[in-house]
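User: Reviewer 2 asked us to show a designed sequence for the structure in our supplementary figure. I'm pasting the structure tokens here. Could you produce the per-position amino acids so we can include them in the response letter?
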């Protein structure tokens, strides 16, 4: 009989840095448009795994010399190859034992991202924007907790990882919820974010007596800054769009509006357009890159956690 241990070992052998498991009962109370069973009704377990973001990929942004490494190695094939390898290996292992595995799209708030007033695909169905809360799935799989920035924190790598989720009809032993404490609410993420997008109203979910909390995020200000349209985060705006004096913290873009604005202006800003085309040549999606470099939510948070000495990630693996 297939065990949770076999699943986790397979994921790590195939490229993931860590793996955890949640049972479907932990998702009781999740809204239908974020519930795994809305996509795969037979779901009994969620397998959540992740790969670390190399700390060195931020160096070019820190020095103001290169914005491509973080986009390629933090979003593109530099990290996705590891995730895809784990997905394929775990899926094959489950299939060999007669179980189904369904990869679940997540990591975005589709209510903010999707065009407004989207209709259901059919009577009695939901609009076609089902997307589980990937970070919540990771929390329910015992992998860590939320930082105040809403970025997910693990005891190995703090905020530096990407996550993937598989739903399966296999009944697997769930991991206990993380009972440690990584985020001390220091607020460095809020103070350092060039988009002033973090630290909104307290949000939270309680599962099995464990409460996960974070500050609300202004997704419009976050995305405008991420795309490199915020002069406080990008040196390219003033160079190529000299008449643009955007004060991002005074805007009220939705995520979708900011997303579209990035595509509209990305090609006009020379380096941002070059970054998008260069990333596509390396197998990433051709779109404006992460020019902000996650200065507050990942970089500043990671430095704080390292200074506190609470992370136990392998520095030899990271090449740091």
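Assistant: Here is a per-position design you can include in the supplement:
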């Amino acid at each position: 009989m297939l065990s949770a241990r076999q699943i986790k070992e397979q994921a790590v052998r195939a490229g993931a840095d860590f793996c955890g498991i949640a049972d479907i009962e932990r998702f009781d109370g999740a809204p239908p448009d974020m519930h795994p069973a809305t996509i795969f009704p037979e779901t009994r377990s969620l397998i959540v795994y992740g790969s670390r973001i190399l700390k060195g990929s931020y160096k070019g942004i820190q020095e103001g010399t290169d914005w491509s490494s973080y986009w390629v190695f933090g979003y593109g094939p530099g990290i996705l190859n590891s995730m895809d390898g784990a997905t394929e290996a775990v899926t094959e292992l489950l299939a060999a034992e007669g179980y189904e595995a369904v990869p679940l799209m997540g990591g975005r708030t589709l209510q903010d991202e999707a065009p407004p007033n989207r209709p259901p695909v059919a009577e009695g169905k939901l609009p076609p924007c089902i997307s589980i809360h990937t970070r919540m799935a990771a929390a329910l799989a015992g992998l860590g907790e939320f930082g105040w920035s809403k970025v997910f924190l693990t005891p190995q790598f703090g905020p530096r990882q990407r996550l993937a989720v598989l739903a399966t009809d296999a009944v697997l032993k769930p991991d206990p919820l993380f009972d440690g404490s990584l985020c001390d609410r220091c607020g460095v993420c809020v103070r350092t974010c060039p988009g002033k997008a973090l630290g909104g109203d307290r949000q939270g979910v309680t599962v099995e007596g464990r409460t996960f909390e974070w500050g609300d995020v202004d997704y419009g200000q976050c995305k405008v800054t991420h795309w490199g349209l915020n002069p406080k985060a990008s040196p390219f705006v003033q160079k190529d769009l000299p008449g643009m004096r955007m004060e991002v913290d005074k805007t009220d873009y939705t995520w979708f509006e900011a997303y579209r604005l990035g595509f509209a202006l990305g090609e006009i800003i020379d380096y941002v357009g070059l970054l998008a085309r260069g990333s596509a040549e390396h197998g990433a999606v051709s779109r404006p890159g992460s020019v902000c470099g996650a200065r507050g939510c990942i970089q500043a948070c990671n430095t704080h956690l390292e200074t506190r000495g609470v992370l136990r990630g392998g520095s030899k693996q990271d090449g740091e």
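For the response letter, you might also mention the following. Confidence is low (pLDDT under 50) at residues 315-320. The beta strands are 18-23, 45-52, 101-104, 145-146, 152-153, 161-168, 202-207, 210-215.
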